[in-house]
Each structure stands twice: as C-alpha cells, then as structure tokens.
Amino acid sequence: METLNCNHPLCVKGTDSETIAATLKKAVEDGINTVVIPRYNKRTGRSQWDIEKAVVIPSGMTLILDNCTLVQAVGCYDHMFTAEKGAKGIRIQGEGNVTLSGGEGNRLQETTAGKYGLPEITVNTMLHFEEVTDICIDNLHIEKQR
Q1: Which of 27, 69, 77, 28 is nearest to 52 (CA)?
Q2: For 33, 65, 95, 132, which has the most beta carbons within 10 A of its beta carbon?
Q3: Backbone phi, then psi, for 119, in 5-degree steps?
Q4: Where are the beta strands (DSSP E) in 3-132?
Q5: Which residues in the chain belong to E strands, given as ranges?
C-alpha cells in the first residue's frame, strides 16, 4: 500500500490545515489513496496538529491518523474533517493513541448561533459528512466536542 505522509517536503504549507489539504491533493494527483498524519508535525516541531479550517477528504481516500493529536484552533468556526456532498469510500483510521479535540472552544452555542456576527451552529462540529456513503471511522478518541 503506497502512502503519502503530511510531513512530505512538497506538502508542508503555512498552516496545519493547509498542509493536510495539500497532502490530500498531492495524493489524488499521484494516484495514492492513503494519507498519513503522523504524531510529529514537522512544520511546527510539535506533536500536535492545529486545525483552523475544515479538511476536505476526497472520495476513495483513507486517512490514517498515526498516534497523533488534532485540535480545533482557537477561534475556529469550522469542522475538523468533512467531505463534499455525494463523496463515497472514505475511511478515517486511528492507529495507536489518537485524539481529536475541540480545544478551548469558541463559545458558539444554540443561543448565540447567527447572532453577534457568529455563524450558524452547524459549522461547529468536529466531523461533518453530509450525504456521504461508504464511510468508516475507527479508533478515534474525541474530547471537548464543540
């Protein structure tokens, strides 16, 4: 099984979300259907990936989260992972100790949604897969769900 790692030099971008998105894009271009997010984040030198913008997983892609921690960034009003409507054949596989965290949160609640310049509550979920078929999500620890 051929994989592409998010620390690949051609994929590292200005933010962690951009880096993961660039890795997924390069994988599709190269005909690779498995992307690995490792524990170590080469861009920041930390063992955490900060997600400030939703990562869109393409159809037919396996995303392996390898002993890593992903945290929704402070002030983020977006999902952590999503896919386009009608996508199919997506797998998110945790390997080892994987944590997805809502982090500090953004104070967006049902009572504040759509008010004070805040978006609707529907953008405040960690995983959002609308009309996606053949999806598998396995071995993830989720904490501080927004």
Answers
A1: 77
A2: 65
A3: -75, 180
A4: 4-5, 34-37, 49-51, 55-56, 62-66, 69-72, 81-82, 88-95, 99-101, 127-128
A5: 4-5, 34-37, 49-51, 55-56, 62-66, 69-72, 81-82, 88-95, 99-101, 127-128, 133-138, 141-143
Residue 52 DSSP code: S
pLDDT at 117: 81
Task: Answer yes or no: are the C-beta atoms of 13 and 53 closer than 8 Å.
Answer: no
Query: Cβ of 45: how many Cβ atoms within 10 Å?
Result: 7
How many Å apart are CA 33 and CA 20, to the nearest integer?
14
For residue 50, the cross-strand partners are 71
Question: Residue 80 above 90 pLDDT?
Answer: yes
pTM for the model: 0.91
Q: Does residue 139 contact residue 99 with C-beta atoms inside 8 Å? A: no
